[in-house]
Backbone:
């Protein structure tokens, strides 16, 4: 447990895995920033080499020109293909590390009578910039430092190579400490951000649904229905209003608790009959509004609404609402024998610019159902004269 916690900067692996999208995004940004900085380093070294300044001779022009060209190409990839870079972040990190540290090693070899400095700076920058795992960073750092020390002893005098070894050991220890500290802080920020986003998402989901029935609430229903109306291209979509009959009598005769149960049973019946899911099983933000199914909501009190999709004819719309009405009439529990309801239906027309016009027609049809004796269905088209 201690090893796992250390490897993931003081957090469990599951917490670390949750942060991977943010880690990849951050690493991509750091790769871009470091490569931009390295590009300018190569450019100035090339200028110094061409002008024989600061002990950088013209013999090194091919070296610095090569690294400048590679870094420019890498910069273009980072700039124009960010999604690909984020997808293959680990490979891009390896390429960035290889590019920068190999340059530091070769710069050290090119100055055999001087202790290395550029490699140490590059190594320190890399160690505090990239987020992986602590074990991964230790392994990568040990390999690159070993290669640097070996190169120093091969191309430099013993005393200078010894000095380089001393410096890299000190820098290695400090860099690993800083790496752990920086990345622990960064992961804690990711965890907090992820937690806040998750809470915000859950609150958005909860605020979309009616707590009593699990149906969409009024505001969320009309918001989604408006999007469906704009995006979906269907020959037959219908807006259906359902209003319970005699609901006041249920409250007065059997109590408000039974009234709540009747509301809950109505919502459950609608979900089951339409083949919909309860609020805890789906996320409105992820719905395919173009190819999606029907949606149902509670307007408040004993009023419900359905946007019916997937029907090919008006008769199919009526048949599906008749199944809901039959299922409600068959309800029986705790002294409640059947739930009666009036239904108003309108088929959405091509000229319905918004849901308001269709809602008014459905409401007119519902009113006719009430006037005609309740517990029945009316279909309203142009002038609300068609009766079922």
Residues:
């Amino acid at each position: 447990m201690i090893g796992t916690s250390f490897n993931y900067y003081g957090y469990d692996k599951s917490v670390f895995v949750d942060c991977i999208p943010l880690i990849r995004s951050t690493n991509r940004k750091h790769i871009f920033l470091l490569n931009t900085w390295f590009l300018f380093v190569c450019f100035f070294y090339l200028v110094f080499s061409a002008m024989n300044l600061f002990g950088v001779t013209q013999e090194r022009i091919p070296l610095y020109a090569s690294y400048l060209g590679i870094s420019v190409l890498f910069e273009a990839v980072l700039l124009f293909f960010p999604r690909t870079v984020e997808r293959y972040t680990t490979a891009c990190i390896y390429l960035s590390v290889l590019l920068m540290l190999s340059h530091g090693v070769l710069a050290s070899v090119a100055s055999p009578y001087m202790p290395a400095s550029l490699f140490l700076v590059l190594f320190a920058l890399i160690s505090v910039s990239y987020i992986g795992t602590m074990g991964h960073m230790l392994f990568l750092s040990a390999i690159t430092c070993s290669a640097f020390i070996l190169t120093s002893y091969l191309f430099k005098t013993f005393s200078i190579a010894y000095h380089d070894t001393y410096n890299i050991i000190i820098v290695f220890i400090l860099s690993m400490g800083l790496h752990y500290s920086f990345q622990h802080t960064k992961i804690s920020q990711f965890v907090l951000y992820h937690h806040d986003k998750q809470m915000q998402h859950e609150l958005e989901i909860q605020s979309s649904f009616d707590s009593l029935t699990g149906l969409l609430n009024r505001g969320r229903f009309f918001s989604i229905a408006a999007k469906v109306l704009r995006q979906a291209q269907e020959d037959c979509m219908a807006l259906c209003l359902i209003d319970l009959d005699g609901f006041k009598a249920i409250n007065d005769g059997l109590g408000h608790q039974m009234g709540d149960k009747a509301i809950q049973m109505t919502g459950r019946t609608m979900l089951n009959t339409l083949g919909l899911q309860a609020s805890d099983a789906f996320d409105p933000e992820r719905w395919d509004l173009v190819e999606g199914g029907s949606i149902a909501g509670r307007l408040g009190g004993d009023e419900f609404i359905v946007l019916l999709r997937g029907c090919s004819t008006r008769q199919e719309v009526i048949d599906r609402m008749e199944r809901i009405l039959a299922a409600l009439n068959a309800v029986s529990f705790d002294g409640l024998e059947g739930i009666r309801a009036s239904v108003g239906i309108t088929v959405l027309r091509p000229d319905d610019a918004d849901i308001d016009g269709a809602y008014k027609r459905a409401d007119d049809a519902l009113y006719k159902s009430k006037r005609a004796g309740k517990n029945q269905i009316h279909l309203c088209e142009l002038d609300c004269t068609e009766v079922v």
